[in-house]
């Protein structure tokens, strides 16, 4: 019998991508599809790929608490409250927002508000028995043991997959992450800067140097690697995210050591594919999938390593990874429902 | 145990899409992946979504003849020979080219050459026991009974799905099909007019009024509906095809009769979704899937019906439909491996 | 000394394109740049190509009435009032909206409201001394003589340029116009269906069969050609509009007669370029310009002619044509400030 | 009377953009439009925006030598020969290739071949009386005095405009340039990786860390700033280039000092616009123009400055800048024919 999943905030892109993925998942059923601003609206009216009669449900905490798992795809202000209540009710939760990714202090630094439940802030090492940072490649056991999983942001997912294996090989304070994302990462709300006529044929940076994902990358990089320069860019594509990550290699670290570290980290991973050095990841290779492609080149002239990592921001960068975490929480095979290959060309 | 499938011409977009679909098909295995111009090249070198060590095989007819089914995704000149040889050897074949879609005479008219095997020309009614036109919604029984299936062209698929249910309701000689396709329909070969810098921000018609798909649409429209005006356009997107079809309604045909005819044709069909009149199909709603969305509006002022049908030209317009036909040929459930939903947004 | 031009509704795409064009016009100065919803906002904040300190002005009719000419780029409800007041004050006006394009009755039919100033409705032949339909290729003398010019809609511009020269050659009641436009034609307002993530990789029809431009095309086609089937589509590009126009040729009309008619109409026209039959117009060839490219093919099988016409919807389809009309109104050389070539690729 | 200009390599994008610009230049006439592989082909067959009967000429050095100036838009191997011969004949030359940008040694390091004319290698300080590096904002006097101008590469143009004003403020060895370009920068040749279906919805790095523009950036950065990490990316747009440049600020350099340095460099420059810190340049704001927009943010946490600079790779990155250099060589006003504003949206 299928596990009953609740999706809250299902009218956004992350929620809708989950609906698409759950429809192909053999052991999950979308029992509740909630979106407070769209109660009663047919799902197909917002997402024409999701045909059928289903309408959005209201958010009903009691009903959600009775499900086998709940994914929150809401703004972090909503998730702070809802995530805590569902956690307290004993319901397994994966939260796509930033509500529980940092420590309480980190949350205040980057998001401006006091954290209402410091005991559920994954970034605080003292609370890792209750809550896990949902990057399975580095926190798999913690996720399995937790009841509340803070799903990583799209930029941190790609950046951490690129850099975490090399943390011991690079010089603190030298990391630059230049990241590029398609527009679906900015959410569904109709905004002037997301108008097709403005984005088509355009490219720009935004939010640097204080984009909130900076703090998340710094928090979850292993070791003490210091502040990171992070610059996101908006690229004229719907899906896809590429992180180009620069760091100075520590003395004596060879090109081979870099490749060895990546292989050691990912050879057994089902979703992360290391390409040969000199072959560069393409976002379209993983479009619509939960995959990540990455590769590294080392530069003797500058002493730097350059790692690029490509994901689908709605896949491994959001809903795909959330489903991977749901699988872990429910004791299912981690890859269930996530084996689809990138849609190319 | 999985049926062993051969894919010939796998280095093109149709072949690669088949590889993507077969990877998710529970009862098929891609036993041979042939591409004569790319023998030994890793598949991943051409299609970065298809990771792994696999390389393209040479075309070996004997080896292909021993498989459970073969899909040909080659130019029609190659398919004429290969399809006939495999058919004669008793191997079930689905051919994506135009080799077997018309009658022998029709083939000569539209493709210029004499047909080497008139007995395998699906467009000749006398040979429908040997070969079927692979539009399952209208030729399902013939496909199940055949050993050679001529998979429809991308434009004819959308045009026929739009118009066939209305054939008895419209005036002969009044049909106009204005169709628009993404660039993957033009194939993988690097050509000047497919350069990104030329297609981006551009739109143009091409090939009218003698595009070869015109004859295929005319042949497979039910009844005697006369010549069709068909104008294809190249649209700046990778996948997606929309056919906007106009016809004058016969005297006394009501708007309700049009909707009834569409519902009668498609209510039981798993892949064709009729949208309410006034709601228009979007190609992106079916991107990456085997679905077709269509809807019709009637216009009392002009007496015309306008039907628009959206498909993924590589899905229902090529590889998806081919797999649907393979399922039918092999006695599998028709929807097996084809239930993926469109990737939106 | 430069003529002083007022632009009202300058915060929309049509108005901003006018600002771009006027900046390169040697005999015009943008004396007033009004946008009621953006008074005080820097122009550069909305249009980053228009650098500088200029801010949007308020709409002040007295001030506008003192200028040498005014272009209205507002919704038709605003233009109905403002256009009439400026006209009554004796100020030359070019109106980009639909306010004055039809007859009073036609306006009511297609726009739902009673026309407040039937004496200024260009579509009523009795009033052509006061107001002209601003398609210079067919109404040049009327424009020169008028004080109020109703600038054609983007779709009618392309459709009429394609079909008007052939009006005497085709069978009434057989015209189908299948048109495709980039998203800037839908205006600047942030709307869900114009979100980049929705339009990218997507294509759909909309508004058929009752899009308001249908009535405008019918009104301004010469002769009595009957109702027209008009279907617009939204295409994933920012600028560019293509009209694919079908009509049945009258008995005995030859392919040569069609080409002769086009050449007779346009050989002396500076902005309309007839391509050889079989060469198809590309929207990108005229991007950023006031040009129109068109070509016709005739089809003996169906008896139809197919004419495709490409324009920049913001150029010849809006601001470029408005400037052409301003030049005519002010007695300037018609091509002044409009000689820029399409930006390709 | 117009100066007679020769354009060699006019069938490529750089050459065609020059043709477009020269058509609007009041003091230049394209006297020769040469492209050896396309002699006799109508220009309009390759560039549909350039209507008319003109055909490509053959390359005839004697004829070119008699012109007032020649722009070379050929591969560097051709330019090495042709540029030297025209220079020796006393004809003013602007070369768009890399032939004369580096020192002879630098050329060998980055391009592999020995330089046939070290005395014409702009990168060698001893020869700056004969040849100039064509970045007018920093080498205006040298360009005016020279007879051979090495037009900068597209990536170096944006990178140097971003970084050169800050050269004295940053720590050597800390520069990272992460650059992104539209596909027209890769040239017109039909190549698999430039197929629309591959680029659409895709993003990838390429060529790092040894792209040849790295050496050009290093050579022309003022002072001794050491090796630079340079990573170019291919972005799904036709035109547009953005360079995101990172460097560690020297001790005690304030945010205000950074802004002051940019203003001091560019306040009097007609083509470079410094945006307020926190406002980010958009490539589309300068599309089709010779403009550059740039802005800088400083980051106290990391001690870095991040400068982004946006240009049209065919404008300020190629043909626009070439025309600016022609203006300087011929003693014309530098901005003549280059005042067009970016085409937005």
In short:
The structure is a homotetramer of 345-residue chains. By secondary structure, the first copy, chain A, is of the alpha/beta class. In chain A, helix 1 crosses helix 11, helix 6 packs parallel to helix 11 and helix 7 runs parallel beside helix 9.
Report on this structure.
The structure is a homotetramer of 345-residue chains. Chain A has 345 residues and is of the alpha/beta class. Chain A folds into two domains: 3-151 and 316-329, NAD(P)-binding Rossmann-like Domain (Rossmann fold), CATH 3.40.50; 155-313, 2-Layer Sandwich (Dihydrodipicolinate Reductase, domain 2), CATH 3.30.360. The first copy, chain A, has helices spanning 13-23, 43-46, 61-65, 76-88, 104-111, 136-145, 154-163, 196-199, 213-220, 255-266, 315-329, and strands at residues 3-8, 28-34, 69-72, 93-95, 131-133, 148-150, 176-181, 204-205, 229-234, 241-248, 272-274, 292-299, 304-311. A seven-stranded mixed beta sheet of chain A has the order 8-9-7-10-13-12-11. In chain A, strands 2-1-3-4-6-5 form a six-stranded parallel beta sheet, with helices on both faces. The two termini of chain A are 36 Å apart. The mean pLDDT of chain A is 97.
Shape of chain A: globular
Give the tally of β-strands of chain A: 13
Name the CATH class of the largest domain in chain A.
Alpha Beta
Radius of gyration of chain A equals 19 Å
Strand fraction of chain A: 15-25%
The name of the CATH topology of the largest domain in chain A is: Rossmann fold
Major β-sheet profile of chain A: 7 strands, mixed
Largest protein interface?
Answer: A-D, 48 and 48 residues
Oligomerization status of the protein chains: homotetramer
Low-confidence stretches of chain A: none
The percent of residues in helical segments of chain A reads 25-40%
Name the CATH homologous superfamily of the largest domain in chain A. Answer: NAD(P)-binding Rossmann-like Domain
Order of strands side by side in the largest beta sheet of chain A? 8-9-7-10-13-12-11
Question: Could you state the order of secondary-structure elements of chain A as H and E?
Answer: EHEHHEHEHEHEHEHEHEEHEEEH
């Amino acid at each position: 019998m299928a596990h009953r999943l609740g999706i809250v905030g299902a009218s956004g892109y992350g929620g809708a991508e989950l609906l698409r993925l759950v429809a192909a998942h053999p052991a999950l059923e979308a029992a509740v599809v909630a979106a407070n601003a769209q109660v009663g609206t047919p799902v197909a009216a917002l997402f024409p790929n999701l045909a059928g009669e289903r309408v959005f449900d209201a958010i009903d905490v009691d009903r959600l608490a009775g499900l086998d798992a709940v994914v929150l795809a809401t703004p972090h202000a909503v998730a702070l409250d809802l995530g805590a209540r569902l956690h307290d009710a004993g319901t397994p939760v994966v939260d796509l927002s930033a509500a529980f990714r940092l420590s309480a202090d980190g949350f205040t630094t980057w998001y401006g508000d006091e954290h209402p439940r410091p005991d559920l802030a994954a970034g605080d090492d003292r609370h890792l028995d209750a809550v896990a940072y949902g990057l399975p490649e580095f926190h798999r056991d913690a996720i399995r043991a937790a009841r509340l999983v803070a799903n990583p942001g799209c930029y941190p997912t790609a950046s951490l997959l690129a850099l975490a294996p090399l943390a011991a090989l690079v010089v603190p304070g030298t990391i630059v992450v230049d990241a590029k994302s398609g527009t679906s990462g900015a959410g569904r709300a109709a905004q002037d800067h997301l108008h097709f006529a403005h984005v088509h044929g355009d490219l720009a940076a935004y939010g640097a140097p204080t984009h909130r994902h900076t703090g998340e990358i710094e928090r979850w990089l292993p070791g003490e690697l210091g502040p990171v320069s992070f610059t996101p860019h908006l690229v004229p594509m719907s899906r896809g995210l590429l992180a180009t990550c620069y760091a100075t290699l520590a003395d004596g670290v060879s090109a081979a050591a870099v490749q060895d570290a990546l292989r050691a980290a990912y050879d057994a991973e089902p979703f992360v594919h290391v390409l040969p050095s000199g072959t560069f990841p393409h976002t379209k290779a993983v479009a619509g999938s939960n995959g990540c492609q990455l590769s590294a080149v080392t530069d003797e002239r500058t002493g730097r390593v350059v790692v690029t990592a490509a994901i689908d921001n709605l896949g491994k960068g959001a809903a795909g990874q959330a489903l991977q975490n749901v699988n872990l929480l429910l004791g299912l095979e981690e890859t269930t429902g996530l084996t689809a290959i990138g849609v190319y060309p």
